[in-house]
Amino acid sequence: MVERAYWLAWSQISGIGPVLLQRLQQHFGTLQAAWEASGAELETVEGFGLQTLAKVLKQRSQLHPEQLLVQHQQQNPNFWTPADPEYPRLLLEISSPPAVLYYRGTVKMPENLGQIPLVAIVGTRQPSDYGVRWTRQIGTTLAKNGFTVVSGLAEGIDSETHAAVIKAGGRTIAVLGTGVDVVYPAQNRELYKQILAAGLVLSEYPDKTPPDRSHFPRRNRIIAGLCRAVLVMEAPIKSGALITANYANEFGRDVYVLPGRLDDYPSQGCLKLLSQGAAPILKELDELLKTLGAIPQIDCGQTLHQAQQLMLPELSPQQQKVMDLIGSEFLSLDVIVQQTGMSAAEVSSTLLQLELMGLVSQLPGMMYKRS
């Protein structure tokens, strides 16, 4: 809870974006330590120029993280920070995870833990009949085969994607460039309600944030970061869908593209992606499903746990006791202490040893899981 307040507080300071926040967390170990650092100490962090430092020192003196958290929770009760165990695991892999991620709708923890495959479908706001037809068909196919489908609630391909998944009885997630309570475009109000009924709406912007042109390109990194693969249906050369695809490449996600004709304007961006190595979506969708199904997922199943047990090096009794408790879901230090019956000092020392052996990973907030 303490570290959660500092993620929120840092996010309120102008000039401090997700990348710089990551550097602060890595440099000081915790954002609380970064908050309490002197100006001279902050200057040693890459990206902290004199102007940024001056802004931070001035704004930091006017904020009280614990009070801010209490006030913010009253106005925006539903949000996660990277210090929370509910924060989507795949977003923690990227270089610019949102410091605060607001949500509305129905949360499914297996999605956040990476146990249910998430696939994004994106594309132009002005699709052709060809693009609409294949978006509906692919969205329906993914929904019926257990995939959660992510898009951006924009006009065109995004809206067709959400609608097709809902019609097929599947689950869809909309990532917005506004607050989670603001519907944009307005004509998607009914679609928004349908998504909330069984799906989820996400945004890095607090409630009541109106649409802003600069928000939507930034929103696209969250779409790419949440998913194991991104499908681009139709996209002109300057389409926002290409921004999503570029983020997907940067984050190590797979990119698939619906091929189009050489002289079709909506397909020019797709053809460019194909020339850069993206995989084509072919008429036989079974092949696409096989490929998507082969993408490794974060699995908490007993079979994986048993396989990991067989691969473990020889451990001391204390190390084995902790490893027997820790699985693929994050556990807090307090829980580990309570359930092992060991002292906090013994558990901390053992966890450090297991981290150095590459067997355990730590998340901000003293949360641990198997690597």
Question: What would you say about this model in short?
Answer:
This protein has 371 residues and is of the alpha/beta class. It contains 18 helices and 12 strands.
Can you put this structure into words, describing what you see?
- The chain is α/β, with parallel strands linked by helices and 371 residues long.
- The chain has 18 helices and twelve strands.
- The protein folds into three domains: 2-75, DNA polymerase, domain 1; 102-293, Rossmann fold; 302-370, Arc Repressor Mutant, subunit A (Orthogonal Bundle).
- A nine-stranded mixed β-sheet has the order 1-2-6-5-4-3-7-8-9, sandwiched between helices.
- Strand 11 (360-363) and strand 12 (367-370) form a beta hairpin.
- The longest helix is centred in the middle third of the chain and has 16 residues, at 129-144.
- It is globular.
- The model is unreliable at 298-312 (pLDDT under 50).
